[in-house]
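In the previous chapter we treated chains in isolation. Here, by contrast, the input contains two separate entities that must be folded as one system, with a combined length of 671 residues.
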Amino acid sequence: MATDELVLLQDVVKEFRGVRALDGVSTTIRPGITGVLGPNGAGKSTLIKILLGLVRMTAGTGHVLGRTLGVNARNIREVVGYMPEDDCYIPGLTGIEVVQFAASMSGIPNTEALRRSHEILDFCGMQDQRYRAIETYSTGMRQKIKFAAAIVHDPDLLILDEPTTGLDPEERVALLNRIRSLADRSHKSVILSTHILPDVQATCDHVLIMAQGQIRLSGSLRDLERPTESRLNISVLSGQDRLTSWLQEQQIHVTTQPNGLLQISTGGPELLERIWQAAAERQVAIQSLTPSRNSLEEIFMTAVKEAADASA
Amino acid sequence: MPVHDVGYRAWNGQRIASSWRWWTISARGVALVLKSKWIRRMLLFAWASVIYWAVSFFLFENFIETVRQGIPGQAAMAAMNELEGTPMGMVAEDEVERILARRLEQQIPLLRSSEAQQLAVVLADDDRAHSRRVFWTLMTLTFFRYPQAAMMVFLIGFIAPSLIANDMRSRAFLLYFSRPIRTSDYILGKLGILAAFLIWTITLPALLLYVFGVMLSPNVSVVAVTWDLPLRIVLASVVVIIPTSLLALALSSLTQESRFASFAWFAVWGMGAGAHLAMQGNFLTRMLGSRGMLDGPILPSEDRWAFLSLYECLGGVQRWVFGAEVSNRTVLTSAVVLLGVTILSLLVLNRRIRQAVQT
């Protein structure tokens, strides 16, 4: 296993009573922030539980941070922080007690655990609310506590399951910034499982798309979203109707994007010249004309559709 | 170096050994339970019976001091003083024992008829050391069997049902098992919570009772006769703590609603005791007797229906631990039942916790 491979999975299969939750998953996760995307039932949670050693694989092999899956589960959890999607708390404890308890269970001595918990809650922007019973917390505050509990023992790898669920826009941005800062400044690696595509776009370096228990697509976000030469986006300040009519007359396929951009299939440099000329003749003010990028949403939808078609 | 930085900082300290992680669970659990003022009151109340029992030790030690050591037949003489004008040669031995038993019962309210008779037999022989041994054993056993056993059932009935059921309901399992914690650490940690409260409720009061007994005795030589009692107290506590705590935890793991686990816990004790009395065939006699259930012995030496009741099984083994009279068959049956309860509870716990983690 190469040193820059955080997670290495080979032909991992997990069956629950005859149902395949994971079907021959092989992938490598490298340092940085990796977004794990997939519809419900894609196998994301099962994959995370296998990485944490909570669920045994039916078949296959794997390593997490150089530790063998199925052999060193406890060692793996020493160096991995996990923030579950579900609410998980111990009724009766205050916020600070929950984080301190998490730290103690990870082996931090009790007094040091308390000091460290305060430090982490400061980092998470949790003020005096930390002394309140956790049952009285809003969803957003519980998310903060879960995040703090996940990082309190200074893990090398952080697995976050839907971390921004229930957060207001301001808190969501703050949490994503914290995640980004952990990766950039503290060199932590993060696996971010989420349904919220903008979260992935805002934070992730790599993307892994799962569907029907298989990994349908993986790679760096930059590569996946690379500009495509076959399409152009046109932003028009005025005269969009006239330009659209002209493009249709020329039998050029044109679509209007939800954000108002016109998207056309390019036909080489000649077409660009003709568009500029037509715009000038028809007094159309073009603001920008850029190669179209694959949006993450399109990539995701295509991968999921392909998986559905393959299984049909 | 920044003057003020609330940014993320790495932690490079020394971690405690993984074999002690269960202690963290126990310590946090105990602290959480102690937040309840009702539990705190119960824990204080659990010590109240020590005073009552200690007075009995004092009364008994004073009683036997009235029998002068080394003079054969002195106990019998003391007893015969009650028989006004009766010549010594005309008093039957069983009559002396009867009188001694009556006097013991009168002076020591905690002593029941059967136990007083047992003691009277020894006292009539003027074996003071043996009589002390018998009395201290009986009193410690009754202390275990009645006030502390009742406190144990109620205390565990209040504390244990929520220990795992609440973790299941609030999905706190993920908080535990996303850490370097094994199933055995979790079970041991939860067991530690109950053990801590049971040690407080059973073991420490019994040890304190022993210390009080020694301090209140006019003669310190009692220590030479009863030196092993503290060790037996500890062993008898282990006999109670392990099967009962594991059973309570297993019941808690079977449901997400702690009240169901609580109901099941009390049902185990209630139905077991009911079934045992019914099968003994003296349910009505014992319940409606002149002094109710206190008329009978702590445990009959032979109890073939002990296996029906967890309470009787605990009693059978505890009686053996304290060296009181009990048949081998009763001890063996009781020990097998307690072992079975322990193993079954562990299997249930292991299975339920693994299931909960994987779903």
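The longest strand of chain A covers residues 227-238. The first helix of chain A runs from residue 44 to 52. Compare these points with the single-chain example from earlier in the chapter.
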